[in-house]
């Protein structure tokens, strides 16, 4: 059974973006803890199943982050379900979840499902626009969301999502250290080893997305950077 609590580094692959076989092989053999498949727009059953079958040639743990209930593909190791805590549109807090469980409830394997409390912090991101997220937040707002995620909803993951831009590491560090059980996932703007080291020093788990498509060599260097942080050489 996969233990996501041990993950330090995750690559996030978008089914709506092209990646050639060589690049995919380098990602899957990089030493990352897991490959997460997910994206905000253009995710379909077909492009998700296609990417899963290509990743499955490798042994790396492979999980799906569900953003569209028409693109729920069997065969992943785990299924991550975002609950966007700062969404203004309640569809992203409970609406899509309700419809998905109504439709797929009888066949859901609940021990494969991980709920993520998302806080979206980059107002310019697609995720913020789609969910109508309130991104103008004080640190105290984020702290409150962290408590709601962990104490009220008992979510196993709090995901601080800066998708496309590098975030406030002091905020990430303080939020992570305020959590007792939940894991803090950080994603956004990690474009190479320097930022990976900073983010890894602040969060429990870092997620690298865009860099895979923009500069693969530097994206791959983020895996080693985590190992450096683990050894204490920042
Ligand atoms: C996106 O948090 C991930 O959901 C990663 O962000 O694409 O900016 O690396 P980037």
Automatic annotation (TrEMBL):
<keyword id="KW-0479">Metal-binding</keyword>
<dbReference type="Pfam" id="PF01884">
    <property type="entry name" value="PcrB"/>
</dbReference>
<feature type="binding site">
    <location>
        <begin position="209"/>
        <end position="210"/>
    </location>
    <ligand>
        <name>sn-glycerol 1-phosphate</name>
    </ligand>
</feature>
<feature type="binding site">
    <location>
        <position position="40"/>
    </location>
    <ligand>
        <name>Mg(2+)</name>
    </ligand>
</feature>
<keyword id="KW-0444">Lipid biosynthesis</keyword>
<keyword id="KW-0443">Lipid metabolism</keyword>
<dbReference type="InterPro" id="IPR038597">
    <property type="entry name" value="GGGP/HepGP_synthase_sf"/>
</dbReference>
<feature type="binding site">
    <location>
        <begin position="159"/>
        <end position="164"/>
    </location>
    <ligand>
        <name>sn-glycerol 1-phosphate</name>
    </ligand>
</feature>
<dbReference type="GO" id="GO:0016740">
    <property type="term" value="F:transferase activity"/>
</dbReference>
<comment type="subunit">
    <text>Homodimer.</text>
</comment>
<protein>
    <recommendedName>
        <fullName>Heptaprenylglyceryl phosphate synthase</fullName>
        <ecNumber>2.5.1.n9</ecNumber>
    </recommendedName>
</protein>
<feature type="binding site">
    <location>
        <position position="189"/>
    </location>
    <ligand>
        <name>sn-glycerol 1-phosphate</name>
    </ligand>
</feature>
<comment type="function">
    <text>Prenyltransferase that catalyzes in vivo the transfer of the heptaprenyl moiety of heptaprenyl pyrophosphate (HepPP; 35 carbon atoms) to the C3 hydroxyl of sn-glycerol-1-phosphate (G1P), producing heptaprenylglyceryl phosphate (HepGP). This reaction is an ether-bond-formation step in the biosynthesis of archaea-type G1P-based membrane lipids found in Bacillales.</text>
</comment>
<comment type="pathway">
    <text>Membrane lipid metabolism; glycerophospholipid metabolism.</text>
</comment>
<dbReference type="InterPro" id="IPR039074">
    <property type="entry name" value="GGGP/HepGP_synthase_I"/>
</dbReference>
<feature type="binding site">
    <location>
        <position position="12"/>
    </location>
    <ligand>
        <name>sn-glycerol 1-phosphate</name>
    </ligand>
</feature>
<keyword id="KW-0460">Magnesium</keyword>
<keyword id="KW-0594">Phospholipid biosynthesis</keyword>
<keyword id="KW-1208">Phospholipid metabolism</keyword>
<keyword id="KW-0808">Transferase</keyword>
<comment type="similarity">
    <text>Belongs to the GGGP/HepGP synthase family. Group I subfamily.</text>
</comment>
<dbReference type="InterPro" id="IPR008205">
    <property type="entry name" value="GGGP_HepGP_synthase"/>
</dbReference>
<feature type="binding site">
    <location>
        <position position="14"/>
    </location>
    <ligand>
        <name>Mg(2+)</name>
    </ligand>
</feature>
């Amino acid at each position: 059974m996969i233990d996501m609590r041990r993950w330090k580094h995750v690559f996030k692959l978008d089914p709506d973006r092209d990646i050639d076989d060589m690049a995919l092989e380098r990602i899957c053999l990089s030493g990352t803890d897991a490959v997460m498949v997910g994206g905000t727009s253009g995710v379909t059953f077909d492009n998700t199943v296609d990417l899963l079958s290509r990743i499955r040639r490798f042994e790396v743990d492979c999980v799906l982050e569900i953003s569209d209930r028409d693109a729920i593909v069997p065969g992943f190791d785990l299924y991550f379900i975002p609950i966007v805590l700062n969404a203004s549109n309640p569809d992203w807090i409970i609406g899509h979840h309700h419809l998905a469980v109504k439709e797929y409830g009888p066949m859901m394997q609940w021990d494969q499902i991980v709920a993520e409390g998302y806080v979206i912090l980059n107002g310019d991101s697609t995720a913020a626009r789609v969910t109508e997220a309130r991104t103008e937040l004080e640190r105290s707002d984020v702290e409150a969301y962290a408590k709601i995620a962990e104490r009220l909803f008992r979510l196993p993951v709090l995901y601080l999502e800066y998708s496309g831009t590098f975030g406030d590491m002091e905020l990430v560090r303080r939020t992570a250290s305020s959590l007792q059980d939940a894991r803090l996932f950080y994603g956004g703007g990690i474009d190479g080893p320097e930022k990976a080291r900073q983010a890894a020093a602040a969060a429990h788990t870092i997620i690298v997305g865009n860099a895979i498509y923009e500069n693969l060599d530097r994206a791959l260097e983020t895996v080693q950077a985590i190992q450096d942080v683990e050894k204490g050489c920042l």
